[in-house]
Amino acid sequence: MRPAARRALFGAVLAFVYAPILVVVVYSFNDSRFALAWQGFTLRWYRSLLASAEFRTALENTLVISLSATLLATALGTLLAVGIHFLRFPGRRALQALLYLPVVMPDIVMAVGLLALYVATHLTLGRVSVILAHVSFQISFVALVVGGRLQGFPVSLVEAARDLGAGPLAVLRRIVLPVIRPGIAAGAVVAATLSVDDFLITYFTAGAGASTLPIRIYAMVKRGVTPDVNALATLLLVFTIGVSLLALRGVGRPNRTGETA
User: Fold this and answer.
1) What is the average pLDDT across 210-215?
2) Is residue 47 a part of any domain in this protein?
């Protein structure tokens, strides 16, 4: 294939992937109430969102659920990755394989399963149920990211610390965690992004008053794709991109050993 043809193909693929996103962003500033009838630039849809009680409630729920679930999943996922990497126990390889199950499992299967579990245990649907649901799939992503970081872990540091009399907790706190901190940060960002963007599992496990931004967008789309829907989708997109850029910046920094995180 000639260079010009390769460039054209590459440009076509990029246009196919990013054109819908660009349309959403551009028409979020449309002064017309009809989504595809451009009548000029305006910020009124963003102002109306900020003045909306439903939007503020959805935003609060999203931030509380995402932050709580991410903190819990990051702690548990990190400990799980460290335990699998350093400990040897029966069923270790099976547990490693099970980490991929929430990653490859269809969301609808996990959503229905969680809802059935909540009904069986009489757990009231609300913020707590959504947080637990998010943690259930976030742990695997955090453990896999941190586990990837541990693959290049200098085992000699642990051996030297043990020779000097350091206990397991001291080794974990002073040696392991500082070295794998970039992996922990990356896993936390991945978990937070998944939590903010999740719709299906949240929709099945959220009760009254626990709607998040994706659920709010779904409710608004039922009335048609209007500029306020585009504005809300754009805000969600900006948040996701911002979190991802912070992750790339943090992970790309060199650590104390001089290696790129």
Assistant:
1) 89
2) no
One domain, residues 205 and 122 = yes
| CB contact set of 133 (below 8 Å; sequence gap of 6+) | 111, 114, 201, 202, 204, 205
188 within 8 A of 211, measured Cβ to Cβ: no
User: Which pLDDT band, with edges at 50, 70 and 90, does 71 fall under?
Assistant: very high
Q: Provide the residue range defining the domain that includes 226.
A: 53-251
pLDDT per position as a tens digit, 72-99: 999 999 999 988 888 888 888 888 888 9
Asked if residue 87 belongs to a domain, the reply is: yes
Among 185, 229, 176, residue whose Cα is nearest residue 28: 229
Same domain, 147 and 30: no
Please give the model's pTM, rounded to 2 decimal places. 0.82
How many angstroms separate the CA atoms of 191 and 161, rounded? 31
Whether 205 and 81 map to the same domain: the answer is yes
